[in-house]
Write a structure and sequence with these properties.
heterodimer, A: 95 residues, alpha+beta, Histone, subunit A, two-stranded antiparallel ribbon, flat, B: 476 residues, Arc Repressor Mutant, subunit A, 3 domains, nine-stranded mixed beta sheet, three-stranded antiparallel beta sheet, 15 helices, 17 strands, 39% helix
């Protein structure tokens, strides 16, 4: 299965990755191998089989609407590479 | 001859549901907490954390769907909408694309006496994003995830509206339905109700709609009306110039009165939706739907009919009293405390409406209690204070929810019911105004008004005008 250059460029944009020409070639090869592997599934006859979104046959897993979490900011903020005034600090972004 | 254009409008309305906790975790949804104090690994998108659906969200979404005549999707699922933005910590938003919880609804609106149905394409459940604050001194952005994971429903209408008036009537209808259900407070200015306007223009009678744009950042009914008018003109000007309308998302700047394109065409808008594997499907049984239908509170139309029957007040008054859930609640609570319905209605219709207008407030923002309004009405009924004093005291109740009994006591505003004291003042007024007295005695009935006024002034407003009038007549 061959992957077109445009496809790799487009996926690069979606994934916010800047790929060098060598990396693009490598990515094309890797992706092609993956798709070929998964395409095995296309050989199955799925006529009359409902699409499945979960491997377990369970449904209606709910929580009651009760507050269980308190203020854990000090710990949560430790996950941030940078923080300021109790907020996660990120590169300047406009909404 | 210039062409005649028609405006075609569809709305996407986001409503924050009034649950205590977020949609997928046990964090509080309370507004106004210090940044990131209502967060956990789930709503900050930490790897390995797992979402668990809040049952209250499903119930509120079903309630809104039933009240807007939708079909409930009895087997529904969540999907992931993928995009990168710092306010979205998972790099995807959990939303519903393939099986939204409600479909094919409608609501009826009325504009200038014309009734019209607006179709609802679907209602889906999703999570809100965090909030970005731009930090000027560091040239960085700061993220607060307190809103991340707050439950939303998005109500997508059919492109059935043709004017700003219809849009506002539709939004008002939704707001009232949802407020009465208690599913949300629906405040446009605080963002608990947000409307995105999809608008296109085409020549009247055209078979196909024109290319549409989506307008964001509309925070008030006025802004919505202005943005619609502006976008209609902008699209017509493009078409008349032989240019094309580009399908894009635009942002409205209400202070400057114009919109600008938010994203350039080159930016990929490919959300790559797929079913969320962390969440299992929701099976909604007939019994569950009926249980929610059974718990549905009285909606506006039912309330209007009941007020007419129970309270015997004019239809116009009923319309205003029920135009906000807050106002209707105050009305009923004050009556429950023993006040006469007509008196309560009068205070709400006249003084309350006047002060709301004066302070440029919405009825939803009323902050005084039924208890204090009932006390005030009682003070007037028992003639402990007169009408003028009552209005002054009410301003205090309206602004600060003071206890009127205490206030009247502390400020010595009680009507002087001491007949001796009143008689003394009336005698003084008669002695001091011989001209008016002579006029009255010569048949000029109106002269008594001046004397009542002088007496009230001498009493510093603390007399009952009726009693003053009576005593003057007696003494003259």
């Amino acid at each position: 299965m061959t992957i077109a250059d445009e496809t790799i460029d487009y996926i690069g944009i979606l994934a916010k990755l800047e790929l060098s020409d060598e990396e693009k070639e490598q990515a094309k090869k890797d992706m092609s191998t993956m798709l070929e592997y998964v395409s095995k599934l296309n050989e199955l006859d799925t006529e009359g089989v409902d699409p499945m979104s979960h491997t377990f046959d369970v449904h209606n897993v709910f929580r009651e609407d009760i507050v269980t979490n308190g203020d854990d900011r000090a710990n949560m903020i430790l996950n941030a590479p940078e923080s300021k005034d109790g907020c996660y600090k990120v590169p300047k972004t406009f909404g | 001859m210039s062409k005649v254009y028609e405006t075609v409008i569809g709305l996407e309305v986001h409503v924050e549901l009034a649950t205590k906790t977020k949609i997928f975790c046990g964090c509080s949804t309370e507004f106004g907490g210090a940044p990131n104090t209502h967060t956990c690994p789930v709503c900050t998108g930490m790897p390995g954390s797992l979402p668990v659906l809040n049952k209250g969200v499903v119930e509120k979404a079903i309630a809104v769907g039933l009240a807007t005549n939708c079909t409930i999707t009895q087997n529904c699922k969540f999907d992931r909408k993928n995009y990168f933005y710092p306010d979205n910590p998972q790099n995807y938003q959990i939303s519903q694309l393939y099986y939204p919880i409600c479909r094919n609804g409608k609501v009826e609106i009325e504009v200038n006496g014309q009734k019209k149905e607006i179709g609802i394409h679907e209602i889906h459940m999703e999570e809100d994003a965090g909030k970005l604050v731009h930090d000027a001194c560091d040239g960085a952005s700061l993220v607060d995830y307190n809103r991340s994971g707050v439950p939303l429903i998005e109500i997508v209408s059919e492109p059935d509206m043709r004017s700003a008036e219809e849009v506002i009537a539709y939004l008002d209808k939704l707001r009232l339905i949802i407020q009465y259900l208690g599913a949300s407070d629906c405040k446009l200015n605080e963002g608990s109700m947000r409307a995105d306007v999809n608008l296109s223009v085409c020549e009247v009678g055209a078979k196909e709609f024109g290319t549409r744009t989506e307008m964001k950042n509309l925070n008030s009914f006025k802004a919505i009306a202005r943005a619609i008018e502006n976008e209609r003109e902008r699209q017509i000007a493009l078409i008349e110039d032989g240019k094309e309308v580009v399908q894009e998302t635009r942002r409205w700047d209400d202070t400057k009165g114009y919109s600008y394109a938010m994203r350039s065409k080159e930016d990929a808008q490919d959300y790559r939706y797929f079913p969320d594997p962390d969440l299992v499907s929701i099976q909604i049984s007939d019994a569950w739907i009926e249980e929610i239908r059974g718990k549905q509170p009285e909606l506006r139309a039912e309330k209007q009919a009941r007020y007419k029957e129970e309270y015997d007040i004019p239809e116009y008054d009923i319309d205003i009293l029920t135009s906000s859930k807050k106002m209707a609640d105050l009305f009923e609570e004050t009556i429950a405390l023993g006040a006469a319905p007509k008196k309560v209605s009068n205070w709400l219709m006249v003084e309350t409406m006047r002060l709301l207008k004066e302070h440029e407030m919405e009825a939803d923002e009323l902050a005084f209690s039924a208890t204090n309004l009932a006390k005030l009405i009682q003070l007037v009924e028992s003639k402990a204070i007169n009408g003028t004093v009552a209005k002054e005291v009410f301003e205090k109740v309206f602004a600060e929810d003071i206890d009127p009994e205490k206030y009247v006591e502390e400020h010595g505003l009680k009507t002087v019911n001491d007949e001796g004291a009143l008689r003394k003042v009336v005698e003084e007024v008669i002695a001091a105004n011989p001209q008016s007295v002579a006029d009255y005695r010569n048949g000029k009935e109106k002269a008594i008004g001046f004397l009542v006024g002088q007496t009230m002034k001498a009493m510093k407003g603390k007399a009952d005008p009726g009693s003053v009038n009576q005593m003057l007549k007696e003494l003259l």
